[in-house]
Design a protein that fits this description.
Layout lengths: L4 E5 L5 E6 H11 L8 E3 L1 H7 L4 E5 L9 H10 L3 H6 L1 E4 L3 H13 L3 E5 L5 H9 L3 E4 L4 H15 L2 E2 L6 H17 L5 E5 L4 H17 L4 E7 L5 H7 L22 H10 L2 E5 L1 H15 L9 H7 L9 E5 L6 H14 L3 E9 L4 H11 L3 E8 L9 E9 L3 H13 L3 E4 L4
Parallel strand pairs: 4-12, 5-6, 5-8, 6-7, 9-10, 9-12, 10-11
Antiparallel strand pairs: 1-2, 3-4, 13-15, 13-16, 14-15
Helix pairs in contact: 1-8, 3-5, 3-8, 5-6, 8-9, 9-11, 12-13, 12-14
């Protein structure tokens, strides 16, 4: 085995396959038949926040199908035999994997059947159908959808296309790293979101092997949602473990158990794993909209969230991947509101007022004097927890950030009012 090749093992110690830098370079030639070389942008704002000399953003949200998943799907499908292509392919997904498989299958003339949950977002459902796939809605959750897909495989003999735990998929996803290092050879730290581990497995392996050839080192940091962080306990246990996942807005990386193969890649190539909250992710989405004019889905913003939250230390240039931009407009609306609130730019104030005329005008004047904008008002005297001579005024206001919001609150308190920020008395 050469220095540029790594072997991967079954549980019994037998070799599954070997993977080298030449495999990733060959995959890059393959995926470029259908993918575009997405831009690698720089963010001065993130550099200032993080203290890094440069921060690069790989814009896979601008990729065909709106995510990096097309890379792995096409590389996997191209490797099917003529007999396997004749049988058709099947996948289970609520989003980006579904669109990647559907697009790749259309390009290769392969029949694709995609199973999606009953509650899948309409834009993702329509996009998958528009790529020519036979979409079947099964299951109230992903487990039910996956079970239906596997039953379809048994009944028809179609080839199941795993979303992350297959070497050809990992090779395809790793081509992102080769494009990044070709455009910016100075990258020293790569920050990558982790769900099932397909993207970080390919990116980490390709980047490490590439750096090894160049005679240098590169650091790989994985980012998981705090509500579905399965890799850290798995690494501590020395094997993939299933966690009790909690709801998260980052549904694209909400995976309760690492893949058997991707676990080995992460164990071997990833230097550190950090977690981010939904608030962190929402802030990152708002920042990307405002500062870079890019629409990024929650899972795709996880790396930026980690940088903004101060989770990544890097003395040299670093980069992260905006892995997808497929976000439902209704969810985007909610996430923006949540992100503004998390950044203290949208405050809900509860103010205790004496029940006498003129108090509403007085409080509004104080808010206006601080150049904050009132967007919603609720006035009640019927809450049982209120003193009988008082009323509660709930103000929803827009501010410029934490310091400005605190100025408004301080001004109200200096005027003698009892103020709670987002709380009941």
């Amino acid at each position: 085995m050469s220095a540029q090749t790594t072997e991967f093992m079954n549980g019994d110690g037998s070799v599954v396959d070997s993977l080298g830098l030449d495999d990733f370079e060959r995959a890059l030639d393959i995926v470029h038949r259908v993918t575009r070389r997405t831009p690698l942008e720089t963010s001065r704002y993130l550099a200032e926040v993080s203290g890094a000399p440069k921060v690069y953003l790989k814009c896979e949200n601008l990729q065909r199908t709106g995510a990096y998943k097309l890379r792995g799907a096409y590389n996997r499908l191209l490797g099917l035999s003529a007999e396997e292509r004749e049988r058709g392919v099947v996948a289970a997904s609520a989003g980006n994997h579904a669109q990647g498989v559907a697009y790749a299958a259309r390009e290769l003339g392969i029949k694709a059947t995609i199973f999606m949950p009953l509650g899948v977002a309409l834009p993702k459902l329509q996009a998958t159908r528009n790529y020519g796939a036979d979409v079947r809605l099964e299951g109230d959750n992903f487990e039910g959808t996956l079970a239906a897909a596997r039953q379809f495989v048994k009944d028809t003999g179609a080839v199941f296309i795993a979303p992350f735990d297959h070497l050809a998929v990992i090779e395809g996803q790793g081509t992102v790293a080769l494009e990044m290092l070709d455009a910016a050879p100075d990258i020293e730290t790569l920050v990558v979101a982790i769900g099932g581990g397909g993207l970080i497995s390919g990116v980490a392996a390709a980047a490490k092997l590439h750096a090894q050839r160049e005679g240098r080192e590169i650091r790989i940091v994985g980012v998981q949602s705090a509500n579905t962080a399965a890799f850290q306990p798995s690494l501590e246990a020395g094997e993939p473990v299933t966690i009790q996942a909690k709801p998260t807005i980052a549904d694209g990386i909400a995976v309760a158990r690492p893949g058997d193969l991707t676990f080995q890649f992460v164990q071997r190539y990833v230097d550190e794993i950090v977690t981010v909250t939904d608030d962190d992710i929402a802030k990152a989405i708002v920042m990307l909209l405002e500062r870079t004019k890019l629409v990024v889905e929650p899972a795709g913003a996880a790396g930026v969230a980690a940088i903004l939250a101060g989770k990544i230390d890097s003395a040299g240039p670093m980069a992260t991947i905006l892995s997808g931009g497929n976000i439902d407009p209704l969810l985007l609306q909610r996430v923006i509101g949540h992100g503004l609130a998390a950044s203290s730019r949208y405050l809900k104030l509860r103010i205790l007022l004496p029940d006498i005329p003129g108090q509403l005008v007085r409080t509004a004047s104080i808010v206006a004097s601080k150049n904050a904008n009132v967007v919603e008002v609720l006035h009640t005297r019927h809450a049982t927890e209120l003193p009988i001579s008082d009323v509660e005024l709930e103000l929803h206001i827009e501010t410029r950030g934490v310091e400005h919001g605190q100025e408004v609150v301080d001004a109200l308190r200096e005027a003698g009012y009892t103020v709670r920020v987002g709380e009941r008395y």
